């Protein structure tokens, strides 16, 4: 049932079934495939200010198809966006466009087409990302209206956010139900 819902959402958003990861061949996975799953935020810098362990503790990010959702320690949704990754760039580029929390996949696709360029710019963040091993990645992005960062830093007074995310222990690798505890680094 969950797989059917995910595939329906992926089709509505224009994602093919190729967006589902295959754990047996991680070397050929696309960036989008490697991002799939649930991630703990293990460190962060908000516009130059290091976030404390207490601020980050329990915060997670869920990536499904091309939708990224963040949750606080109480599992309350804080942010939701559709995203694209350009893994031909070095570092890889990510572009995230925030969407309402209650939007259905078909509404997200329609809303994206209906928005004016000015509205889209106010809702779009540009960033860079890199993988640090199999189960960790770093995301650095500019708040809407600011330029895409070129390095993995969040200087004081900037509009740049920097996060390191680690795969949740026990989170299955999409497509196979294999958990990361059973994978070798």
Tell me the total number of β-strands: 11
Report the total helices: 5
Unreliable spans: 1-26, 105-112, 175-185
Largest sheet: 8 strands, antiparallel, barrel
Radius of gyration: 16 Å
Give the strand line-up of the largest sheet: 1-3-4-5-6-7-8-9
> Helix/strand/pairing class, anyone?
alpha+beta
Q: N-to-C terminal Cα separation, in Å? A: 31 Å
Determine the oligomeric state from the structure: single chain
C-alpha geometry: globular
The overall average pLDDT, rounded, is: 77
The proportion of residues in beta strands is 35-45%
> Helical proportion?
10-25%
Helices and strands, in order, run as HHEEHEEEEHHEEEEE
Describe this entry's structure for a reader.
- It contains 5 helices and 11 strands, in the order ααββαββββααβββββ.
- It has an 8-stranded antiparallel β-barrel with strand order 1-3-4-5-6-7-8-9.
- By secondary structure, the chain is α+β, with helices and mostly antiparallel strands.
- The model is unreliable at 1-26, 105-112 and 175-185 (pLDDT under 50).
- The chain starts with a helix and ends in a 6-residue tail after the last strand.
- 20% of the residues lie in helices and 36% in strands.
């Amino acid at each position: 049932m969950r797989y059917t819902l995910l595939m329906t959402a992926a089709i509505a958003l224009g994602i093919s079934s190729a967006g589902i990861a295959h754990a047996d061949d991680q070397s050929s996975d696309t960036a989008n495939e490697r991002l799939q799953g649930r991630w703990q935020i293990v460190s962060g810098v908000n516009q130059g200010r290091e976030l404390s362990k207490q601020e980050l503790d329990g915060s997670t990010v869920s990536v499904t198809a091309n939708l990224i959702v963040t949750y606080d320690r109480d599992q309350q949704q804080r942010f939701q966006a559709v995203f694209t990754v350009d893994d031909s760039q070095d570092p890889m580029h990510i572009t995230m466009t925030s969407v309402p929390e209650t939007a259905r996949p078909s509404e997200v696709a329609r809303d994206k087409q209906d928005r004016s360029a000015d509205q889209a710019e106010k809702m779009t963040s540009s960033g860079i990302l890199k993988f640090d091993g199999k189960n960790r990645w770093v995301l650095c992005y500019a708040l809407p209206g600011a330029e895409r960062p070129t390095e993995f830093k969040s200087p004081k007074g900037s509009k740049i956010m920097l996060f390191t995310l680690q795969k949740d222990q026990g989170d299955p690798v999409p497509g196979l139900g294999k958990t990361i505890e059973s994978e070798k680094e």
